[in-house]
């Protein structure tokens, strides 16, 4: 009993975390039923999570169980294998419009696009839907595609998944150029060395304290097994940053992105 109580005190004192990159796609449903998935997120100490799934039903299942924790984001895929084909399938816009008229979402994504594909009708249509509904975009895209998205809608608010795996110097230029661009650090590891933030990345975080968020990216079922350990690793390197940068990256920047929706959920 004392141990349980002690455990809850430790948990309460832990840094709040808002995970901006969770998927609950069809291939995870059998292994991790909705209640198990919610339990994993809660046990990892998350206060909130952006959840998007292929298909969207996965997100809705988790949202019904945990509306305080799950913030739905609408993915344009019905199955996991549509990462590359969706840009040539404008009928996806009909599915998105139907979902948007039925359910509430904070954003549209995570979607994958690179280079000139970002000018294709399906992608422009998706960006237009986000603008119409006042939602942010969660884009897994190279810098070139991000530029094209902002050319199409200069007022877009974009959460850049993994910063497109671009290099730090390029990320800085992009952040400087586009004030409404934020970076989700999921699946990035090079900013940490020996558990501490590297000097170069520390400079970047201090220069852009309100632009980075954390995320796990449960893109395959096996990633659900790692959520707790991965977030423990994140808490470790966040502890190496000064306040308020630490809290900004841990949860506040994601909360601000959410609050910047005109009809905030
Ligand atoms: Zn992802």
Describe the structure.
With 265 residues, this protein is of the alpha/beta class. The protein has one domain (17-259): Alpha-Beta Barrel (TIM Barrel), CATH 3.20.20. The protein is 42% helix and 17% strand. The chain is built from ten helices and ten strands. It has helices spanning 2-13, 34-43, 57-65, 92-102, 121-133, 143-152, 168-177, 199-207, 227-238, 245-259; strands at 17-23, 46-52, 70-74, 107-113, 136-141, 158-161, 181-184, 192-193, 196-197, 212-213. Strands 1-2-3-4-5-6-7-10 form an eight-stranded parallel β-sheet, sandwiched between helices. The protein has a two-stranded antiparallel ribbon with strand order 8-9. The longest helix has 15 residues, at 245-259. It is globular, with a radius of gyration of 18 Å. Zinc ion binds next to strand 1.
